[in-house]
Amino acid sequence: MTTFLQFHLLTAYPPSNPNRDDQGRPKTAMVGGAPRLRLSSQSIKRAARQSPAFQQALEGHLGARTKRIGEVIAEHLEDQGADAAKAKEVAAQVADVFGKLDEARNKKEGVLRTAQLAFISPDEQRFAIELAKKAMAGEPMPKDKDLAKTVLRSADGAADIAMFGRMLADDPDFNREAAVQVGHAITTHAAQVEDDFFTAVDDLKTRAEDAGAEHVGEHAFGSGLYYLYACVNCDLLVENLAGDRTLAATSVEALVEALATATPTGKQNSHAHHPRAAYIRAERGSAQPRDLTGAFYEPVRQTPWLETSIAALEDMAERIDGAYGAAPDAHRVLNLPKGEGTLADIKAFARSAVAHD
Predict the structure, then answer these.
(1) Same structural domain for residues 186 and 303?
(2) pTM for the predicted model, two decimal places
């Protein structure tokens, strides 16, 4: 039976704007008829991938999401002494494997980009560069599907591709189904976006000349206690990593630490938001996953906010388990208000779900 790891986190953010909408304001959602602040799942996953927890623990096993693989190949060839024009021609042929080239932009701007972002594993990047070097040396380039099969791999060694998946529209055989699902984080309580009026003063202007500001503007922000849910299909994660349970175990440990400590970085220099999860509930079992967002469909109104939210979340877990049968076979909790549990405990618990043979 499939083993699932589920994580439920509560994290308090100070006044901040970590994840902005198209107007530069904090993202929001209506839940239970009440306005909430929101962090998109995409922003959370990127924050996790870029976090020290991922970069250090999974060094050498992280892919790159980019349109610039052609430029990487061309620069490598030129560094080896290749003619720039020839290097660009060969690099374009290889880059086309990862996605159609953006011909209009490349011609206009003199760049070498694909039209879509491609999630590329370290092995695939090495294969692409080696193939380009052979072509520069006079070896014939494989054609069509043979070219794709020469460069593209199943990304077995890329932990982040194994966790978050990828889609290659032109080569669906090399798609990867995500083993990790991450929800949008929402505040457990009603929350509004606020506006800050700010000014900037010219340091070299004297008061006698003019006491006014040289720049005025507005900046939106919000604050609140966010609930985040994530689910790991442990069997699929191991499968995506070609059966490498050690790498899978390291991956889930890195994921736990990243979810607990990493944040989207929008306007971070303006707000210095560096929160840590105040509550983590980690669950392991083979029953169908379930998130606990329903605990906050009715927004929390009673203080203290954190303790009330924890109680609502745990009550919802007990009620669902009572109605449907126990979902997790086991669980661990980090609860800062009660001084219970540690991040190390949660990481060890998560590791044990995939490290066994």
Answers:
(1) yes
(2) 0.92
